[in-house]
């Protein structure tokens, strides 16, 4: 699927969600428990799919860069986005909206990973960046909102500490289960049925951990277990991630239909453009070392937004009315800019044709020279 076709498909998915909400006069969809569980499940799957596709060797190599990206990089992006918003609108509370769109959507990254032309190192960096910057933006949202409300409805450091401990406990339990199953993995051609049984157990275990994580919003644990709990499912995970991305876009349309305002959509457009540009600035600074030269442009154009931004907007809406009406259009603008910019760059810089490795020269034994007796017989025949 080309970037242009993907853009059209995303707009169609958004329109489908919008039409369903308009046709059946759905209002307050975001307040229902079913909708909250659905989008949280999609976000959790995106986190797991993104980290489960990371090449662990590359992840270890780029660990320091990943840590910088999800800490200082997130703070830098928030500062850049808010700087643009404050220059245009002079609204201090837009700082919270800047936090809501500062992360990269892991579901979108997972869906496009297979078709990306980035190197393995760049894919590992972007996937880890997308998976682990979510907790940072959630933490920032908690603190900034608490500060803005002066101890209002949103919890403080104590709640975050408990949540972090529960995430660690769930991930630790999953790791212990994985080690137990791995010890019993059968080896050899005769154990094919046993390997399928182990794979089925691993899939069921991931689903069970995923249900607990989604039910109690322990999504950091899902990102962590994707680094080791990896049943071999071929391309199923990438395919499901792409389906999930379109389902998430339709879910955005369900909310946007009831909350849409042209004035707030304009604010969202500026917010989305600022978020996309901030990724370019921060990624360029992170990839100054020479080894990133071939992937720098694609990492700079890697900003995508999705469910994390929507979930944070839903969290902010009760205290900051209009947050959804701003963030949802921003998500659409970011993803359109991503598709258009990457499509243009692909045409500008087509992939370098791979040079086939030289085939090894087969060394054959030299031809056996004719013996002198053979020459004599040939002469006699002549």
Describe this protein's structure.
The protein is an all-alpha fold and 382 residues long. It is built from 16 helices and no strands. It has helices spanning 3-23, 33-52, 56-61, 63-89, 94-100, 106-112, 120-149, 157-183, 192-215, 219-225, 236-259, 262-286, 296-300, 307-316, 323-348, 372-381. The N and C termini lie far apart (71 Å).
Distance between the termini: 71 Å
Count of helical stretches: 16
Major pleated sheet: none
Principal-axes geometry comes out as: globular
| Helix amount | over 70%
Radius of gyration of CA atoms, rounded to a whole number? 26 Å
In total, how many beta strands?
0
Low-confidence region ranges: 151-155, 352-360, 362-382
Query: Structural class, from helix and strand content?
Result: mainly alpha
Element order: H for helix, E for strand: HHHHHHHHHHHHHHHH
Keywords:
about 375 residues; about 70% helix; mainly alpha; about 0% strand; globular; disordered C terminus
Helices and strands, with pairings:
Layout: H1 3-23, H2 33-52, H3 56-61, H4 63-89, H5 94-100, H6 106-112, H7 120-149, H8 157-183, H9 192-215, H10 219-225, H11 236-259, H12 262-286, H13 296-300, H14 307-316, H15 323-348, H16 372-381
Helix pairs in contact: 1-11, 1-15, 2-6, 2-7, 2-9, 2-10, 2-11, 4-5, 4-7, 4-12, 5-7, 6-11, 8-9, 8-10, 9-10, 11-15, 12-15, 14-15
């Amino acid at each position: 699927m080309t970037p242009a076709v993907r853009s059209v498909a995303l707009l169609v998915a958004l329109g489908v969600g919008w039409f369903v909400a308009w046709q059946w006069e759905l209002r307050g969809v975001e307040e229902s428990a079913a909708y909250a569980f659905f989008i949280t499940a999609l976000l959790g799957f995106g986190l797991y799919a993104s980290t489960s596709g990371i090449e662990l060797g590359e992840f270890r190599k780029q660990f320091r860069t990943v840590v910088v990206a999800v800490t200082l990089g997130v703070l830098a992006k928030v500062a850049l986005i808010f700087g643009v918003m404050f220059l245009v609108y002079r609204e201090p509370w837009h700082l919270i909206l800047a936090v809501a769109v500062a992360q990269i959507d892991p579901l979108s990254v997972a869906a496009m990973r297979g078709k990306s032309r980035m190197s393995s190192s760049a894919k590992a960096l972007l996937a880890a960046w997308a998976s682990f910057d979510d907790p940072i933006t959630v933490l920032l949202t908690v603190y900034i909102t608490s500060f803005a409300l002066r101890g209002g409805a949103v919890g403080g450091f104590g709640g975050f500490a408990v949540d972090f401990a529960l995430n660690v406990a769930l991930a630790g339990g999953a790791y212990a289960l994985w080690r137990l199953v791995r010890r019993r993995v059968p080896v050899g051609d005769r154990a094919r049925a046993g390997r399928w049984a182990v794979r089925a157990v691993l899939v069921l275990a991931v689903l069970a951990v995923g249900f607990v994580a989604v039910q109690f919003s322990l999504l950091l644990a899902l990102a962590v277990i994707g680094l080791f709990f990896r049943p071999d499912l071929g391309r199923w995970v990438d395919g499901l991630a792409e389906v999930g991305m379109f389902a998430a876009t339709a879910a955005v349309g369900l909310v946007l239909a009831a909350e849409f305002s042209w004035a707030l959509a304009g604010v969202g457009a500026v917010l989305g453009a600022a978020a996309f540009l901030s990724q370019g600035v921060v990624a360029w600074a992170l990839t100054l070392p020479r080894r990133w030269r071939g992937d720098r442009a694609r990492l700079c154009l890697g900003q995508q937004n999705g469910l994390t931004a929507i979930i944070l907007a839903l969290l902010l809406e009760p205290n900051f009315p209009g947050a959804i009406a701003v963030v949802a259009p921003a998500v659409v603008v970011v993803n359109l800019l991503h598709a258009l910019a990457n499509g243009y760059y692909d045409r500008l810089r087509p992939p370098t044709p791979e040079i086939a490795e030289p085939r090894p020269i087969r060394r054959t034994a030299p031809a056996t020279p004719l013996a002198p007796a053979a020459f004599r017989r040939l002469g006699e025949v002549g």
